[in-house]
From TrEMBL:
Residues 1-24, 226-257 are annotated as: Disordered. Residues 1-14 have a biased composition (Basic residues). The lineage of its organism: Bacteria, Bacillati, Actinomycetota, Actinomycetes, Kitasatosporales. This is EboA domain-containing protein. It comes from Streptomyces lutosisoli. Residues 244-257 have a biased composition (Low complexity). It comes from the Bacteria. Signal peptide: none annotated. InterPro entries: EboA_dom.
Length: 257
């Protein structure tokens, strides 16, 4: 059963959050909220409305754990695994999580919560301050964390050396290179990346192991004559590269939430 007065209250609360100084909702996140409102059931939408209101009313870190951090932990159960990452990104934004708050959620959270922090970085951290979180994720063998780590934030802030190794890590672990944000632009005319890819292909061939098709795709992009085409976002919602629930092609969720 629909409750028009609840919907209206939610819109007013969202508008209030949008008017707070220095805290405007980016078009990509507004589109994400609209998508969740379309796909979530009534109980999940009501929970998310309340959780976002709480986060906006009490932003930042408060004591051992903030109320919005509790909601981050609940999101999988409340919204389901398909939409949990997206809900957590919205909660982190509503809470105006700074690099310290993001680091705390990342350190203390489950793999799913860490993944949401990585997805939220381009919407919350304008500079390279959160790179240690990306670098930590890239040291793991968790393919979903790696996929989240090579999103738009890494594309913008990772230095060439670490970015090349991130691409190689995707090839080592089987993460599709489609997950690497802005790959064509960053790979363009990168002779060092081409050398690394060639060495890896030679190692695989010498060991009698197949060379991943994705390696040849990336190698072609390093050609100076290739036309670099940026990939700033996912096909589903621009600016939300890889977040499960925002497209049918990227960031496919599993059971973990």
């Amino acid at each position: 059963m629909n409750h028009p007065h609840r919907t209206q209250r939610g819109h007013h609360s969202q508008a209030g959050r949008d008017r707070q100084p220095g805290h405007t909702v980016q078009p990509a996140l507004a589109a994400l909220r609209t998508r969740l409102n379309t796909h979530l059931g009534g109980a999940a939408r009501a929970w998310l409305d309340r959780a976002l209101d709480e986060a906006a009313a009490h932003p930042g870190i408060h004591g051992p754990i903030s109320v919005w951090e509790l909601r981050i932990a609940e999101a999988g159960r409340r919204c389901g695994p398909e939409y949990a990452d997206a809900a957590r990104v919205l909660l982190l934004h509503a809470a105006r999580a700074d690099p310290d708050a993001l680091a705390r959620v990342y350190r203390q959270g489950t793999a799913a919560e860490r993944r949401a922090v990585l997805h939220a970085l381009p919407h919350l951290v304008p500079g390279p301050d959160a790179l240690p979180l990306v670098e930590d994720a890239l040291r793991t063998n968790d393919t979903r964390l790696i996929a989240a780590a090579v999103g738009p934030y890494a594309a913008q802030h990772l230095d060439p050396h670490n970015w090349r190794h991130a691409v190689l890590k995707c090839l080592f672990t089987g993460v599709p290179v489609d997950e690497v944000a802005d790959l064509p632009r960053r790979a363009h005319s990168d002779a060092e990346l081409a050398r690394m890819l060639g060495d890896y292909a030679d190692e695989r061939a010498a060991a009698g192991r197949p060379v991943p098709e994705d390696l040849y795709r990336v190698l072609a992009l390093t050609d100076p004559t290739a036309t670099p085409i940026g990939t700033p976002g996912s096909p589903g919602v621009p600016g939300l590269h890889g977040i499960p629930g925002t497209s049918g092609t990227s960031g496919t969720p599993g059971k973990e939430s």
